[in-house]
Amino acid sequence: MYETQQIWIKLCHPLFSHLSRLTEASKNLYNTTNFYIRQIYTSLQTNKPLHLLQQEVMDQLREYLPVMNENQRNAYHKRLKKQQEKATEERKEVKLILFEMPTKEKPFVSYIFLDALFKAMKQPDYKALPAHTAQGT
Hints:
It comes from Lentibacillus populi. This is Transposase. It is built from 5 helices and no strands. By secondary structure, the chain is an all-alpha fold. Helix 1 (16-45) packs across helix 2 (52-84) and helix 2 packs across helix 3 (111-121). The longest helix has 33 residues, at 52-84. It is flat, with a radius of gyration of 19 Å. The two termini are 18 Å apart.
């Protein structure tokens, strides 16, 4: 169970500007994520020509999908090498999972897909946050 605690920090506090930047980046990342989910879903569910923003998002997916899959391959090889260094009985199975373009039948993008997309894009708000915070957002 999570509990939330509200802490008020005054403008004169030494951490105010830093925390203000982090909260703004988190808000922007949340909004960007919702925007991408909505644009991908609506572009795949319509029979009409795509709007400019929908086309832009779908073009970005096509552009960054190979980068996302290359990153997946690199991570897979790293994990595989690490497992091979362990004793045989301690090894775990390592799987390579590659991403595919969303389709009309599967228009929803997963958390893992968006996380990989934002890493590949070097999305500014994603990069502005600590990794754990960006992934949680």
